[in-house]
Amino acid sequence: MFIIAPEQTKELDRLQRLLDKLGQTYRVFVTNLETDLAEQTDSLATFFTQKDPTSKVGKPLFFNDLAVPELWECWTLGITTYLFDGEERRANVVLREDILSRTVERVEWFGQGEEVVSIDVYNRYGWRSKRSLLTEAGQPYLDIYLNRQQEEVLLHFVSQGIFLHQPSKGLDHLYANKEELQRVVLKQLLPENEAILLLDKTLLDVVKEIPKERLAYCARETHDLDEIKEHVDQILLLEDGLLSERKDGITVLSGLVDVEQESFQPEALVMTASQEVEGLSSLVHQFPQVTFHVAALTAMGPKLTDLASCFNVRLYPGISLGKYEELLSSCSIYLDCNQGGEVWSSSLQALENEQVLFGLKSTVHDEAYKELSTITDTVEEMKQQLEILLQHPEAFKEMLREQARILELPKKEVLGELFNRLEGGLG
Q: What are the record keywords, sorted (predicted)?
């Protein structure tokens, strides 16, 4: 299966997680010039620079292993890291997101004073994959893409939009713009007998020679899809929500569950943008056997922070995406009791992570949830439903199945058949 996307987005991540859950194999091609990509992913730049399989072997470069001129040193003051020539700073070293790993994302080289004149980018395999030369205004005028042997393979003259490919053998190739480069690369990459999942409708013309039966378009929402329907076999909806009505030719991917893989854990999660979480304090005190994980993107108000002293409460103000995803996978209960807007479509992601949804009809963030028996009119009724689950944890899987049936969540076997049919194409 071949996925074409404009960039690495939340929608692409969702699609990849779903395919992993279904056991489908796939490759990804992003139509930008990113150079720091995972092993099964390529871009316009890595198509030219990472043809050698060994280019995707290795780990991020530790900051102290940077190649620098003799007598230069890497100095660090906590997060701030730089190159020092004995008298002056010569470059900033910007570390990767995981600061504690102390590995290099890029190096910003200084000219006169501390004016940045060029930037070296390092990928997750530990080698320099790009160098940008900057104007006096700090804008790139030339991007140079390098292979593992540090040969200049692809040049992008930014202001003109021109690309120059410099192969190790044969003549150089000049491309007038990014669109021409995309077409040439995709012509070589498009598979003959695989399904193509397209996340960029601007490329429908590029894939028009592919049989319609092998094409699917992955959409964020249901608007303006009629014209696209004419060109593809399926439209796969990646929207963070549940459809109120079913439409021919559109398959909803949101909410896929794999019940048989799950076992019950007395762990509850609530993601909130407000300190107003109906019944939370009462639930915490009545169910000491449940650990309540309360997360927010920002600081928390006193109604939440006052619960910090409870042994069965864990608070996560300013939660990171990684920690949030860890909680999604470890909790068995999701509380949709918070007032105000929903954060990160968390209730739907809880469904996808095989959590039983508990909440109040006055607070749930999707009308469809009100049909669930675990969504009640009062906190007392919700407590009764939670008590049933805690007394009979063996009923957890059946509750998940009932939840999926009522909400009409996509079934693993149905989606598996759909992707297998796309892979089969005309055959």
A: Transferase
**Beta strand pairing status for 291-295 and 313-316?**
parallel
Does 217 score more than 60 pLDDT? yes
pTM value is 0.84
> Is the domain of 248 the same as that of 263?
no
Q: Report the domain count for the chain.
A: 3
CA dist., res. 254 & res. 404, Å (int)? 11
Do 243 and 275 fall into the same domain?
no
Amino acid 140: pLDDT: 97
Whether residue 275 lies inside any domain: the answer is yes
The reply to whether 176 falls in a domain is no
Q: Are residues 275 and 396 in the same domain?
A: yes
Q: Which residues, 6+ apart, have CB-to-CB distance to 52 below 8 Å?
A: 147, 148
Confidence of residue 73 (pLDDT cuts 50, 70, 90): very high
Instruction: Render the burial of 271-283: b for 16+ CB within 10 Å, e for the rest.
Output: bbeebebbbbbeb
pLDDT in tens, 223-249: 778 889 889 999 998 865 665 556 667
Residue 225, domain extent: 2-30+190-252
Q: Kindly report each contact of residues 160-168 with a partner whose C-beta sits within 8 Å and lies 24 or more positions away, as own/partner.
A: 165/48
Taking 60 as the threshold, does the pLDDT of residue 141 lie above it? yes
pLDDT for 254 equals 82
pLDDT at position 427: 42
Close Cβ partners of 187 (under 8 Å, ≥ 6 residues apart): none
Q: Is residue 49 part of a domain?
A: no
Give tens-digit pLDDT for 82-106.
Answer: 999 999 999 999 999 888 889 999 9
Tell me the C-alpha distance between 135 and 356, whole Å: 55
